[in-house]
Amino acid sequence: MRFHDREQAGRALTEALCRQLGGVPPDPLVLALAPGGVPVGAAVATVLGAQFDVLVARRRTGQVCCAGG
């Protein structure tokens, strides 16, 4: 499925979520991962009338070493 933009994707996600849950969940909270998830999360939160917050994560670079290995 293709979307015009991430906002449209967020609205479609909200519709699918509400169908799956049988309506809008009580007191919803939407968390979005920056940067790409913010427009999607904002659209979901707007449609649901939900609280909205953004999580910022850093991409790890370089080699990751396991303990003992």
Quick gist of this model?
This protein is of the alpha+beta class and 69 residues long. It is 41% helix and 14% strand.
Order of helices and strands: HEHE
Mean pLDDT: 90
How would you characterize the largest beta sheet?
A: 2 strands, parallel
Which structural class is indicated by helix and strand composition? alpha+beta
Low-pLDDT runs of 5+ residues are none
Shape: elongated
Oligomer: single chain
End-to-end span in angstroms? 42 Å
Tally of separate helices: 2
Beta-strand content bin: 5-15%
In which order are the strands of the major sheet placed? 1-2
| Computed Rg | 16 Å
Helical content band: 40-55%
**How many strand segments?**
2
Task: Give a topology summary.
Elements: H1 6-21, E1 29-33, H2 37-48, E2 51-55
Parallel strand pairs: 1-2
Helix pairs in contact: 1-2
Fold and architecture overview:
It is a single chain. The protein has 2 helices and 2 strands. The chain is α+β, with helices and mostly antiparallel strands and 69 residues long. The protein has a two-stranded parallel sheet. Strand 1, helix 2 and strand 2 form a beta-alpha-beta unit. The model has no long low-confidence stretch (mean pLDDT 90).
Structure characteristics:
69 residues; alpha+beta; two-stranded parallel sheet; 2 helices; 2 strands; elongated
